[in-house]
Each structure stands twice: as C-alpha cells, then as structure tokens.
Amino acid sequence: MLHKSVMATTTGDAKDQGAPGRAWRRGARAAVRAIVDYALPPRCPGCGIIVGADRQFCLACWTSLHFLDGPGCSQCSVPLPTALPGGQMACGACLANPPPFTGAPAAVAYGPVARIVALRLKYGRRTGHARLMAQLMARPLAALGDGGDMLLVAVPLHRWRLWSRGFNQAALVADELARTTGVPRDHHLLLRAKSTASLRGKGRRERERIVAGAFALADDARARVAGRHVVLVDDVHASGATLRAAARVLRRSGAARVSALTWARVVPDALMTSNIFDFASLDSDISDPL
Ligand SMILES: [Zn+2]
Ligand SMILES: [Zn+2]
Q1: Is residue 54 within 8 Å of residue 128, measured between CB atoms?
Q2: Domain holding 78: CATH number?
C-alpha cells in the first residue's frame, strides 16, 4: 500500500546489549510501554477508532485521503489534470500573478480527515501528529530537490500567539522532517513581525493587505539564507497569502530559491471532483477550535 511507512510501529533500541543494568531498564521501559499501550490503545488520527499501531489511519480514513502526487503547476504545485511535455506548466493564477516560490507541494488535499489531523495538532496538542504529517510530507520534500542546499524554515507565529498556544505546530512538523530526512532546519531565521488578523472569509486583496509586513528576517540571518533553497513548512496551504508573504521576505534576503511545503492543500473544487472546499474561507490561520 502507498506510504506504508505510516503503518510502521516504533522500533526498539538495538544498543546496550550486554549491559545488565541497561537491559533491566530497557525491560522495565518495555513493560511500562506495554501497560500504557494497553491502557491507551492507538487510535486513528482521523476518526479516533482503535487501530493496530500508532500513527496508523483506519481503512476508511486512509482511503478518503487524497494524495497530491500527480501533475501540478510548476510554480504553485496546484494539481493539474494532465502533465505537459517538459513539465514546465504554470496554472492560470500563476501566469497572471507569479508567486514568489517555486513549488508549493502538499502531502494531501485539504478534506475532513486532513483537517482534523491539523486541528488536533494545533488545538488538541496531539504533538505526535507532527510526526505523522512529516512522514507523509517527506516524499513531496524529496521531489523538490536533492536537499544539499535545502533549509527548512517553519512559518513562525507571532510571539503572543506562541505564548498563548505554547508551541508552533509548523515548527514541530519541521523538526520531524529534519529528523527523518536529515535536511537542516532553522527556527531563528524568520520572524513574525506583527500579529495578523484571521484571513477567514477575506478576499485576495484583503488577505494580501493583512499579511503585508507580517514577516521579517532576523538580524543575523542574511548570511544563513544567502544562496540556499529555503523550504517554508506549514500545516495548511489555503489561499497561500501567508506563504507568499513569508517567501517574499526570504527572496529579498538572498535565498536562491524558496518553496513551500505543507501537510494539506486546499484545492479548488473544479480540480477535485467529489470534494467540496470553501476556498476563500480558509488559510493556514484556520481558527476552528476543537
Ligand atoms: Zn479513521
Ligand atoms: Zn500555479
């Protein structure tokens, strides 16, 4: 099955062989884990029913996910019905208004299951969901390039929101991506210079106005970004206004290339038959509390 890594269970610690004290502690840890696993069986990240392993979707949720691994726009990665020879095909929106990034892939289309996974990380503090999301984002990350000059940069929160929430969900996902792929990440490069209002329900011009000036580069960051392929990491890509604002700052600061990688992408309904999305009412600042 596709993306079978999601079905993987945690691996055991192969070290420490021959050390009785450590072996005892390892055995004790395994016993505690077994008790916890018994008391708290793994649940599907989408619907919550009991499943066989951590970070494993039930069959219904798994089959409802729409993986965005088909042909897409060369600039914003929105799915396109067919690929053209040469692969350099931009969508109408990018031809009319070129984005400041080159490639904005997402693991899955934004839908009910993708949404609940993102919300449970963001508002439900299910921080283990960051690992799940990163597992499924590793493949679109690899498709962006060989990784030699890549730098992962999570879309930052303003400090007030960071203090109130306690963590930045995009940074947790970037941490997991860095851990599993070896691509470095830098959480001190990009700053949220101003707190922005929700983008829900706003038109394109209004969204652009709200996020203008929202991001700035840290004082000592220009040398770290120069010549790099910066991959912005966020949970949800809806209108893209937030990602474009962040990408513009990075491009102006000397990044050789900027891409935007997300867990879920809101795809216009015309491109996603049998799925209904409210394209204008969503952004990475989704605010539905659980
Ligand atoms: Zn499920
Ligand atoms: Zn496009």
Answers
A1: yes
A2: 3.40.50.2020
Residues with CB under 5 A from ligand 1 (ion): 44, 46-47, 58, 61
| Residue after which a domain boundary falls, among 35, 60, 85 | 60
Same domain, 203 and 272: yes
Residue 99, amino acid = P
**Dist CA 272 CA 110 (whole Å):** 10
Q: Whole-model pTM? A: 0.80
Range of the domain at 28: 21-60
Is 33 in contact with 26 (CB distance < 8 Å)? no
- The ligand that comes nearest to the alpha carbon of residue 113 is 1
Digit-coded pLDDT (tens) for 133-155: 999 999 999 999 887 899 999 99
| Distance from the alpha carbon of residue 250 to the mean position of ligand 1, in angstroms | 38
Which ligand is in closest contact with the Cα of 80?
2
* One domain for residues 187 and 258: yes
